[in-house]
TrEMBL record:
This is Transcription antitermination protein NusB. Keywords: RNA-binding, Transcription, Transcription antitermination, Transcription regulation. Involved in transcription antitermination. Required for transcription of ribosomal RNA (rRNA) genes. Binds specifically to the boxA antiterminator sequence of the ribosomal RNA (rrn) operons. PANTHER family: ANTITERMINATION NUSB DOMAIN-CONTAINING PROTEIN (PTHR11078:SF3), N UTILIZATION SUBSTANCE PROTEIN B-RELATED (PTHR11078). Gene3D superfamilies: NusB-like. It comes from Neisseria montereyensis. SUPFAM superfamilies: NusB-like.
Amino acid sequence: MKTPRRRAREFTVQALYQSALTQAPVAEIAKNIRESSDFKKADDELFTTLFFGTHANQKEYIQLIRPLLDRDENDLSPIERAVLLMACHELSAMPETPYPVIINEAIEVTKTFGGTDGHKFVNGILDKLAVQLRPNDPQRH
């Protein structure tokens, strides 16, 4: 059974994916996502925070992610890119969420929407990103 927070993350990835492909206004994308029949089962506050925060800061986040990639950023699947950006936002802007939870959620969302081994790639990048963004996290020691 998916939690409301997992659903919010899945909808965030869908919204980021739509944004990357259509260049539609973010408010319009968010409105369309919220009209989905399953959205009522999602954490709307988390969706709002993740989607708008990630979208607003994606240029900064891709700068953090780019050096960790083993391929050109243009070769990322749109799903992997959306998941990495969303997780980067959570790691950067939401210290109340433990980093292992962020990484695990990103892996699970990638398994839902991504390619066969996409979750392994996402896991590797996020492990490195967590060290960089949360160097003093007590869970690391």
